[in-house]
């Protein structure tokens, strides 16, 4: 089976460095918020061009703590997309705020700025765009709307480490940004991990306190916080991967370009649309097809793994029935959820395996004639 993603393949390239780092952490006796966390945060600040970086336990916590630190809670509203992983909306609900959804752009799959204004009310406090599948959202328009309405912009960059918008890396495009280091992400570790970036010192100070039980000084607690700290082992692994991320992302981009070129005559599925403003880093390579189920079944029978991201929009999830949304409220997102699927793409995907995916898609199309 050709996997849709294979994180172990590129981690095996650096396993000697990982083993050495693990031994160093083990012998240090310092396993939480130690030197690797400190150095990783320094390296991330330099890499992303922000003044503050705070590592946390996972990407969901990064979102929750960012919202909490921004003073968002009961009675507030946060605008976001219904077409993304559940955690984006879940984090908003976790801090007591109301999720307000806006439909997406049919080309980029990201939140459509043109539809945001109509959802702004006196209770709106923030916009939370997602850089879906590795492609940045239209941040100029989002920031313009936010500024004119005195709103906070929190980037969900969990799928887009290394992506760029108009030459600037995601993570420094809004007021705050959130990252995930889940094993299948472009920049990852062998477990969970997350990070918040900002150039707001007060927000950063607040998040550092919140991640450690609301404490700036051990055993003295100023507020109710969380236990959300990045382990030293994960920090050490991410630091090693950080040295290779540009190369790995470039490999993803070249493979995606090859798919674009080879599949441009495919009629049964439409390839992704990379905006000219963006450097898309292809966390996923997603196709849109009216024949999704049949294509997936054919690829599976030919030992090619696929994935559906995402089969049900968040506004139609059972957990959000209380908000009163119904089918038809966000037609573009809903249409995508019924037609989109992803095919194998990861840094070390071989040309031979990629050719098999391409040839199999064309064989399926030939069978439909």
Describe the fold and architecture.
The protein has 369 residues and is α/β, with parallel strands linked by helices. It folds into 2 domains: 230 residues, Type I PLP-dependent aspartate aminotransferase-like (Major domain) (Aspartate Aminotransferase, domain 2); 124 residues, Alpha-Beta Complex (Aspartate Aminotransferase, domain 1). The chain is built from 12 helices and 14 strands. The two termini are 27 Å apart. The model has no long low-confidence stretch (mean pLDDT 97).
Helical percentage: 25-40%
User: Spans of 5+ residues with little confidence (pLDDT < 50)?
Assistant: none
Radius of gyration: 21 Å
Query: How many strands, which pairing sense, and closed or not: the largest β-sheet?
Result: 7 strands, mixed
Q: What is the name of the CATH topology of the largest domain?
A: Aspartate Aminotransferase, domain 2
Strand content: 5-15%
Q: What is the number of domains?
A: 2
Encode the helix/strand succession as letters: HHHEHEHEEHEEEEEHEEHHEEHHEH
Q: CATH homologous superfamily of the largest domain, by name?
A: Type I PLP-dependent aspartate aminotransferase-like (Major domain)
Termini gap = 27 Å
Count of discrete alpha- or pi-helical segments spanning 4 or more residues: 12
Helices and strands: which structural class? alpha/beta
User: Under the CATH scheme, which class of the largest domain?
Assistant: Alpha Beta
Spatial shape = globular
Query: Would you tell me the overall average pLDDT?
Result: 97
- How many beta strands in the DSSP annotation? 14
- CATH architecture type of the largest domain: 3-Layer(aba) Sandwich
| Spatial order of strands in the largest sheet | 1-9-8-5-4-2-3
């Amino acid at each position: 089976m050709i996997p849709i993603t294979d994180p172990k393949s590129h981690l095996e390239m650096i396993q000697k460095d990982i083993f050495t780092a693990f031994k160093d952490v083990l012998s240090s006796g310092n396993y939480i918020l130690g030197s690797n966390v400190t150095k990783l945060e320094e390296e991330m600040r330099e890499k992303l061009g922000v003044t503050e970086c705070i590592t946390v336990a996972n990407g969901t916590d990064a979102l929750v703590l960012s919202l909490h630190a921004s003073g968002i809670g009961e009675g507030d509203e946060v605008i976001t997309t219904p077409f993304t992983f559940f955690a984006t909306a879940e984090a908003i609900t976790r801090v007591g705020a109301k999720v307000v959804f806006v439909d997406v752009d049919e080309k980029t799959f990201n939140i459509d700025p043109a539809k945001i204004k109509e959802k702004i009310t006196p209770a709106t406090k923030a916009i939370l765009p997602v850089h879906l599948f590795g492609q940045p959202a239209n941040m100029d328009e989002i920031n313009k709307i936010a500024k004119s309405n005195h709103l906070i912009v929190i980037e969900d960059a969990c799928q887009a480490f290394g992506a760029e918008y108009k030459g600037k890396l995601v993570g420094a495009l809004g007021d705050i940004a959130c990252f995930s280091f889940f094993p299948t992400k472009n920049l990852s570790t062998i477990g969970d991990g997350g990070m918040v970036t900002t150039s707001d010192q007060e927000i950063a100070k607040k998040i550092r306190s919140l991640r450690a039980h609301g404490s700036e000084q051990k055993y003295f607690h100023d507020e109710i916080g969380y236990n959300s700290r990045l382990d030293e082992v994960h920090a050490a692994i991410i630091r090693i991967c950080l040295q290779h991320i540009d190369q790995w992302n470039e490999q993803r981009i070249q493979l995606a370009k090859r798919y674009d070129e080879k599949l441009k005559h495919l009629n049964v599925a439409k390839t992704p649309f990379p905006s000219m403003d963006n450097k898309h880093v292809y966390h996923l390579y997603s196709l849109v097809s009216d024949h999704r189920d049949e294509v997936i079944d054919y690829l599976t029978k030919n030992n090619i793994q696929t994935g559906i991201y995402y089969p049900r929009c968040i506004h139609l999830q059972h957990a959000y029935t209380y908000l009163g949304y119904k089918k038809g409220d966000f037609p573009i997102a809903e249409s995508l959820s019924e037609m989109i699927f992803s095919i194998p793409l990861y840094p070390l995907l071989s040309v031979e395996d990629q050719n098999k995916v391409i040839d199999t898609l064309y064989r399926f199309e030939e069978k439909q004639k």
